[in-house]
Every structure is written in structure tokens, then in C-alpha cells.
């Protein structure tokens, strides 16, 4: 990603994240006009996603993890926050640092530097904790242990994990994510991070809480998600499909191809892209072993009538 520092409306850029980065960079310049600020206010008001994206950029700018990661990752002189560079250099400095930081976030490097346990793409790992509970990390996952004194728990920095928690009513087990917490005494469940935190319960009871203080109690066979707006309603979940990855399988029933490919891409050593929106809406059903993701792509192409184009070992395109 590359952001231009010259005057250009951030609203004309592609993704919400790119726009948020550009707005943040522009607003660092002391020469920002009232018109710029009015346009920024209009952009924020246009969608809740805009405010969330901008807040994420602001948190990144203030993050100590970004400073540490950038200093280890690249020879980029970081602007010292206690020293103010000339106004005309603010936008360029902010763009360089934030764009670099966004790339680090996208690659998961910051999370991995903060983590106590990680898995690579396609890898799974089971860890037994000190209290006898166990956590299984799914593909491309990073988590930090959060057991201090009488407190039991972990923080999922990115990815997905399955928990088998040993009962202890005096010491609840707490899983933290960016969007909220999952609190349990003893049960089996999974937590998946992303735009929202997805929670599926296999057995027992869990309490999911959002950052605003709202919460919901889930029991076996139930699902919810936690986002900035709070905890969503409870829905039933097919545990056979939800936990299929524990057995090295990907199971889906009458789902859009785009959703299936997005899930498969988490296990694939490279990017899988669908170029046709109509193709992405094709409904597919399947039950596959995850050990050969390229074979699954070919099978899905046969089912949906798509062509597979391998542009490189790390880029596969599905075309209608």
C-alpha cells in the first residue's frame, strides 16, 4: 500500500482502511483547513465503519508495539512524538509510519512479537496449560497467556482457538479479544477473531461480554459474535461443521463460494481470489480434508464451473 501526501481527498481512495490512514495523515498537518475538517466530519458520519477504522489507525499510531515492531523490522526513522517536525513533513511522516505499520498488522508480525504461542498458515498446535486446561490453535493464530496470580486465561491476538477448560468455580477462565471477553468455568468452545469475535460452544456454558458492558450467556450448540456495537443475538450452530477443523476438515453446506474461499484461504499458503462477483454467489456444499488446499480449490472450481488460473505459487485466481 502507498499513500500520497499531496492534497487529495482521502474519500476518493479505495478501501475504508486506506481512507482512514489518509485522513489521519492529513489531519496531522497544521495547515489543514476548515474545509478539510468539515469533509472529514462528513466522512466519519457516513458510516460507523469509518469511525471504527479511524479509531484503529489512531490506536496504531499511539501503540508502543508499532514502535518496537518498526524498529526491528525496517530502518525507518520514527518521528519522535515529543519533538514536532516541520508541519509540511507531518503528512509524509505519518504516511510512512502508518502504512508500514498497517503492512505489519496485515502480515501479523506485530501480533507474533507480542504472542507466547503462534501457528503458521495451515498449522495447528495443542497446548496444555498449567491448570490442566488445553487450547488448540488453528491456522495462522497468535495468543498470549494471561494467567496472573489467581487469574486464568489467554488473549487471542489473531486467529482462532479451541478451548477445553478444566472446571474451577473459584477461578473463571477468561479469553480476551479486541472486541470483548468470553468467561467460563469449565467447558469446550472456540473463539475466532477478525472483524468481530465469533464464539461457538460445544458443551457447557460461556458468558460473552462486549466492551460496552452488555453480555449474553451461551450453552451447547449456540453461537454469537462480539463487535464494537456489542454482543449479537444467539443463534444455533452446527457443531459438526464449526469444529471440523479440529479433525483437519473443512465442511460447508449450501454456502456462497466466496465465503468458502475466504475460509479456505486461511489454510492456503498464498492468496485465492475470485474475480467474478456472480461466481462468488454460487452456492456450494462439500466436506474436504484440509491437507491439500490446492485440490479443494480445483474441486470447488469443478462444482461451480470456474476456471483456475495459477498466476504464481502464491496467487490463485478463480474466474467464471
Automatic annotation (TrEMBL):
A molecular function GO annotation: sigma factor antagonist activity
Highest taxon above the source species: Bacteria
Name this protein carries in UniProt: FecR family protein
Gene3D superfamilies hit by this protein: 2.60.120.1440, 3.55.50.30
Domain FecR N-terminal: 18-60
Domain FecR protein: 117-206
Pfam families: DUF4880, FecR
Amino acid at each position: 500500500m502507498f499513500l500520497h501526501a499531496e492534497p487529495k481527498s482521502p474519500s476518493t481512495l479505495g478501501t475504508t482502511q486506506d481512507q482512514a490512514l489518509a485522513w489521519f495523515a492529513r489531519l496531522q498537518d497544521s495547515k489543514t483547513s476548515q474545509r478539510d475538517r468539515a469533509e472529514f466530519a462528513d466522512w466519519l458520519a457516513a458510516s460507523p465503519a469509518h469511525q471504527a477504522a479511524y479509531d484503529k489507525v489512531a490506536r496504531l499510531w499511539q501503540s508502543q508495539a508499532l514502535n518496537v515492531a518498526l524498529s526491528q523490522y525496517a530502518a525507518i526513522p520514527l518521528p519522535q512524538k515529543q519533538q514536532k517536525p516541520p508541519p509540511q513533513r507531518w503528512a509524509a511522516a505519518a504516511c510512512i509510519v502508518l502504512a508500514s505499520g498497517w503492512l505489519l498488522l496485515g502480515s501479523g508480525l506485530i501480533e507474533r512479537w507480542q504472542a507466547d504461542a503462534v501457528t503458521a498458515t495451515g498449522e495447528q498446535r495443542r497446548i496444555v496449560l498449567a491448570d490442566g486446561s488445553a487450547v488448540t490453535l488453528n491456522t495462522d493464530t497468535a495468543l498470549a497467556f494471561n494467567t496472573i496470580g489467581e487469574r486464568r486465561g489467554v488473549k487471542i491476538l489473531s486467529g482462532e482457538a479451541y478451548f477445553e477448560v478444566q472446571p474451577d468455580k473459584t477461578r473463571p477462565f477468561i479469553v480476551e479479544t479486541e472486541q470483548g471477553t468470553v468467561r467460563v468455568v469449565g467447558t469446550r468452545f472456540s473463539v475466532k477473531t477478525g472483524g468481530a469475535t465469533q464464539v461457538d460452544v460445544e458443551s457447557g456454558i460461556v458468558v460473552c461480554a462486549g466492551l460496552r458492558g452488555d453480555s449474553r450467556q451461551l450453552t451447547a450448540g449456540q453461537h454469537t459474535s462480539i463487535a464494537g456495537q456489542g454482543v449479537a443475538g444467539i443463534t444455533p450452530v452446527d457443531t459438526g461443521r464449526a469444529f471440523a477443523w479440529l479433525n483437519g476438515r473443512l465442511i460447508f453446506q449450501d454456502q456462497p463460494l466466496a465465503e468458502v474461499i475466504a475460509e479456505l484461504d486461511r489454510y492456503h499458503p498464498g492468496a485465492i481470489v475470485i474475480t467474478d462477483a456472480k461466481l462468488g454467489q454460487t452456492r456450494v456444499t462439500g466436506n474436504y480434508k484440509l491437507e491439500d488446499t490446492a485440490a479443494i480449490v480445483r474441486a470447488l472450481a469443478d462444482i461451480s464451473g470456474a476456471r483456475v488460473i495459477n498466476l504464481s505459487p502464491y496467487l490463485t485466481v478463480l474466474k467464471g
